[in-house]
Design goal:
Length: 171
């Protein structure tokens, strides 16, 4: 049983099938872009009509951490309490994309530093035709859930990188 071209092709086909099925951890339910954005927006009023407060130590009533990565995990339907920012920046949950390819529900992640400097925001849409800013949802220290214009990751002057969640399942 030597190596034949057919065996090589069969091996490569099996390898490709295996790679395409490794899209996200088993606990990551599929989520559409619109569902992810709606879930992110829900924390703007989830606290009796107000935003969910920020905390790195406490979980919200849905079981997710009340920090930026817990918030992004909640919106993306990842397992509770959610992976941290460093974990979200790995190929387990996301893949690197170009800024120009960003779509609603993609993430902008800074995984460098410590728990007080790392951050993740959820891209919603470009805020102007020149794409010099975008609207994003975030869970930020000292404030809680917000929706505002941002420029993180656009000009190469910070550590933010655009990433796409592997459990995104369409619009």
């Amino acid at each position: 049983m030597g190596v034949t071209p057919m065996r090589v092709l069969a091996f490569l086909a099996a390898l490709l099938v295996g790679m395409t099925t490794l899209v996200a951890p088993a606990s990551a339910a599929p989520v559409s872009r619109s569902e992810l954005i709606n879930r992110a927006a829900s924390w703007l009023t989830a606290n009796n009509g107000g935003r969910v407060p920020y905390s790195q130590e406490t979980n919200w009533t849905d079981g997710y951490r009340m920090d930026c990565s817990g918030y992004a995990s909640m919106a993306a339907k990842l397992s509770t309490p959610g992976p941290n920012t460093v974990q979200l920046n790995t190929d387990t949950y996301t893949m690197r994309i170009e800024v120009s390819a960003m779509l609603p529900g993609d993430l902008m992640i800074d995984s460098i530093g410590d728990g007080n400097t790392r951050h993740v925001v959820i891209f919603h849409k470009w805020s102007n035709p020149g794409k010099s800013a975008y609207m994003a949802y975030e869970q930020r220290g000292g404030y809680g859930t917000s929706y505002r214009a941002m420029t993180y990751g656009l000009f190469g002057s910070d550590e933010y990188v655009p990433r796409r969640l592997k459990n995104i399942s369409g619009w």
